[in-house]
Amino acid sequence: MENIYMTKNVYENLDLRIVAEVIHLLKRKIRKSSEENLDKFQIFEVEENKMIRRQEEPEEMEEHTLNDKFRKMNIWAVQGSDESQGRYWTIMFPEDY
Q1: CA triplet 8, 5, 57: central angle to 5 degrees?
Q2: Are the CB atoms for 23 and 4 separated by under 8 Å?
Q3: Residue 14 contacts residue 5 (beta carbons within 8 Å)
Q4: pLDDT tops 80 at residue 1
Q5: What angle do CA 89, 96, 59 make, to 5 degrees?
Q6: For 6-26, how does the pLDDT look when each residue is reduced to its tens digit (9 = 90+)?
């Protein structure tokens, strides 16, 4: 399994329930996808009690119901690569990019 990190902004400001759901959906997507079907840029859109996970290449979208209501926000998960640790993901807000 690839490591998953988060920016300081996400760590300090994103509700832990949202972080847990993003990690859960990201791990599930990684497990279920082949290399060709996994976009290195995953987008999570939250509004009230819904979270949409989508990617652009190949185009795909899935909607999930959350147990609580949250303000509208976007969260990104971006795959990176490093010689020492291989592939990893970073969870961030768009303004962290």
Answers
A1: 115
A2: yes
A3: no
A4: no
A5: 55
A6: 999 999 999 999 999 999 999
Q: Report whether the peptide linkage leading into residue 58 is cis, meaning its omega lies within 30 degrees of zero.
A: yes
Please report the DSSP string for 54-70 in residue order. EETTTTEEEEEEEEEEE
Nearest to 29 by CA among 77, 87, 92: 77
Question: HSE on the CB side for 74, CA within 13 Å?
Answer: 11
For residue 12, CA distances in Å to 31, 70, 93, 96 come to 28, 16, 12, 13
In this structure, are residues 3 and 91 in contact, taking their beta carbons and an 8 Å threshold? no
Which residue shows structure tokens 């832990």? 16
Q: pLDDT value at position 34?
A: 80
Query: pLDDT tens for residues 16-71?
Result: 999 999 999 999 999 988 877 899 999 999 999 999 999 999 999 999 999 999 99
